[in-house]
Amino acid sequence: MSCTNRKIDHLRRQIPAFACVPGCHDCCGPVTASSEEMARLPVRSAAEHEAALARWDCVHLGPQGCRVYDQRPLICRLFGTTASLPCPRGRGPEQATAPALERQVHRLIASTRQLLV
Ligand code: SF4
Ligand code: SF4
Fold it and tell me: Which of 2, 19, 24, 106 is the 20 to 30 Å CA partner of 78?
């Protein structure tokens, strides 16, 4: 496993989870991820990507919500857990992501080639 993959797993484990409003996907939209995260996601066709972008949606968003929840990118996991990425529906974990951890996530994002999911 590459160093980046190990970092991704390490960060994923530390970002606190929380329960969303059932059925809500208000914060989903076009997002980017590293190639290491992309490799964990199912491949979607060019037509699916085009259709999702035309709706300004994420290609992995389905009628029941995120279809790749267990492998969703770091930015999706961070959303709602920090003051800088607040959930518009007022949800979030009891304990926010620690600022140092948030910085590590942003450093990893900045240091990897980001691709449109
Ligand atoms: S984080 Fe908030 S806006 Fe995003 S899906 Fe969950 S409840 Fe909805
Ligand atoms: S990967 Fe899942 S959680 Fe992230 S934007 Fe797409 S549908 Fe939403």
Answer: 2
